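Aim 2 progress update. The chain analyzed this quarter is reproduced below.
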Amino acid sequence: MAVQDKAHTDVVIISQPWDGRLAYAISQVGSPPVLTATAIALNGSTLSSPRAWVWAGIHVLLAVLAPLLYLVWLVRWGLVTDLDVQLRQQRIKPMIFTIVCSGLAWLVLTLGAAPRPMVVLASALWVQAVVTFAITLRWKVSVHCTAAAGTAMVVWFLMGTPLLLLVGVPLIAWSRVRLRRHTLAQTIAGTLLGLAVFLPIARSI
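Predicted structure tokens:
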């Protein structure tokens, strides 16, 4: 069933006009796992030490790769319809798993005396996961936009450029609305959530 759904999705994307295919590409490049891994890697790269890269790898493994593999498993067994998890009710299990994995990543980094900026980032990602889950219990918020806004703040404070915030986040929001995965209100709420979590701690990353 999951293979059939995937094939159907591919046919729908290919049959869309150019702006639909562009929106799909932007949505994939700007997916939460890609953006979260990017933020973690960028954070590790600014510390310029082999030890930081080891901790970044551990963080990505626990907080990004493990939840992603769990989601793929859910799709494979038909427990979730697709990797986008379009149905709000189906987001509960993968989000709980993400919260557990993010919390474990924070605990490992903290107990292992990882560099403080990496621990701060891990705590922010955990808080973001918890708040997103709480909202999702009643309303569908855009996780893409939440991750995009959070990553944009990390990029801004580490690299000194607001380009991702000013250009990348609106593009990702547009892609989610264009693909009818979210409403405009849901993308705005997701963006504000990412900013609210990361703005207060961005200077500490």
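DSSP finds nine helices and no strands in the chain. The first helix runs from residue 2 to 15. These observations will guide the mutagenesis experiments scheduled for the next reporting period.
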